[in-house]
Specification:
This protein is α+β, with helices and mostly antiparallel strands. It has two domains: 25-162, Thiol:disulfide interchange protein DsbD, N-terminal domain (Immunoglobulin-like); 181-410, no CATH class. The protein is 48% helix and 20% strand. It contains twelve helices and twelve strands. The strands form three sheets. It has a four-stranded antiparallel sheet with strand order 1-3-9-6. A hairpin with a 4-residue loop joins strand 7 (89-93) and strand 8. Helix 5 packs antiparallel against helix 11 (348-369).
């Protein structure tokens, strides 16, 4: 009976391995093909997946699916550095009860091997890829893909461009996910970089023609009223900032509710969504270049502008109104951040808009707290339009990044 069970288990495992090999095809290449002692060669492993199967990243957190692992061997080689991989799709998996990192429908992994001393001639670099495949209904047991690739080791001193340095940033494989400016860094490095970008977007949005000239006017409204104390002036400016933060964070909450727990990652993997995002970024860039303006309905703005009074509720609505009236200049900044949330989880829109709005509202509070600092503000002028133009080019860089995602999927 035990022999029968063992045979059945062996047949199941062999069948799973065969299925895994059918659902994933591998290609291996090495650069450079000729190397010297002390140099490092890069081994690139292309994985093409069929149907709805996906493979997990090398940085998949513990406690979940088996992460992709690449092991190199060979008497003339020593593996160095971590696995090189593009930005994975991050999605909450209810089966593992955690966020998982995966790729679909293709991915290129990379790893480096250093050439040892005294090994001239043609050498064989061997390796194994240990990986796990899953789809929406099942996961296959971890499987192994083995490969061998020849490398010619020639005599001579090591060339500087091929020497591996542990402190250098790993080269990104040529798979259409190359880096473009700060926006790409925010996309690839995760939540912390996204929040950092949100902070700077909030400050940059202040340096636009619709917003910057209004800062001293608005602060003076709170600080130069004779019938109120300084404490009341600061408190009212805080209420004004609350209106701004509520407006933008509310946008983030609406988007988070729309996306749900996994919608962001699904959007990020859809080439049509990436194509739409590319068009949105181009439109934002053209708006920043001054070709057209993004405006809210005048009827809505007129009704909000009719709100008067010195109560905290009225001042809160004033902050809300200011956020909407400045939308002509802030829309590209806000839109950029909301679009980038498609690269993360459902919480990204809320956190991003909270950080953005806090930075955007901060001058109104701190200048009310220290009104003498108003004299240090630079005068409005043409430099404000220059800021918009620079941000327009950043929007175009982001558009190219998302367009490269489309090209990667459709190749």
């Amino acid at each position: 009976m035990r022999i029968f069970v063992a045979v059945c288990v062996l047949m199941v495992l062999q069948g799973s391995a065969a299925l895994a090999q059918n659902e994933a095809s591998f290609g291996v290449m090495v650069e450079p093909k000729t190397a010297r002692a002390g140099e490092a060669v890069a081994v690139w492993i292309d994985v093409d997946l069929s149907d709805d199967w996906h493979i997990y990243s090398a940085t998949t957190p513990p406690g979940g699916p088996y992460p992709t692992e690449i092991v190199l061997s060979g008497e003339a080689f020593r593996q160095v550095g971590a696995v090189i991989q593009p930005r994975p799709i991050v999605e909450y998996d209810p089966n593992f009860e955690m966020n998982v990192e995966y790729y679909h429908p293709k991915v290129r992994f990379g790893v480096r091997a250093e050439v040892g001393e005294g090994m001239p001639g043609e050498r064989v670099l061997s390796g194994e890829v240990i990986y796990m495949l899953c789809n929406a209904t099942q996961c296959l047991p971890p499987n192994t893909y083995a490969f061998e690739i020849p490398v010619v080791v020639e005599a001579g001193p090591a060339r500087a461009e091929y020497v591996f340095s542990p402190v250098e940033a790993p080269a990104v494989p040529l798979d259409g996910t190359g880096s473009v400016a700060d926006v790409e860094r925010a996309i690839t490095e995760g939540l912390s970089a996204f929040l950092y970008l949100s902070l700077w977007m909030g400050f940059l949005a202040l340096l636009t023609p619709c917003v910057f000239p209004m800062i001293p006017i608005t602060v003076s409204f709170f600080t130069k009223q004779e019938t109120q104390s300084r404490r009341e002036s600061v408190t009212k400016s805080l209420a004004y900032c609350g209106g701004i933060i509520f407006t933008f964070t509310g946008l983030g909450m609406v988007l988070a509710a729309t996306l749900g727990a996994s919608g962001a990652a699904l959007f990020a993997a859809n080439p049509w969504i990436n194509l739409l995002i590319t068009a949105i970024f181009v439109a934002f860039a053209l708006a920043l270049f001054g070709l057209f303006e993004i405006r809210l309905p005048y009827g809505l703005l007129n009704k909000l502008n009719q709100v008067q009074g010195g109560s905290y509720g009225a001042i809160l609505i004033m902050g809300f109104t200011f956020s909407l009236t400045s939308f002509t200049c802030t829309a590209p900044f806000v839109g950029t951040l909301l679009v980038l949330t498609a690269q993360g989880t459902w919480a990204w829109p809320i956190l991003g808009m909270l950080v953005f709005s806090a930075a955007f509202a901060s001058p109104f509070f701190f200048l009310a707290l220290f009104p003498q600092s108003l004299a240090a503000l630079p005068q409005s002028g043409g430099w404000l339009n220059s800021v918009k133009v620079v941000m327009g080019f950043l929007e175009l860089a982001a558009a190219l990044k998302f367009l490269s995602n489309v090209d990667l999927v459709w190749q």
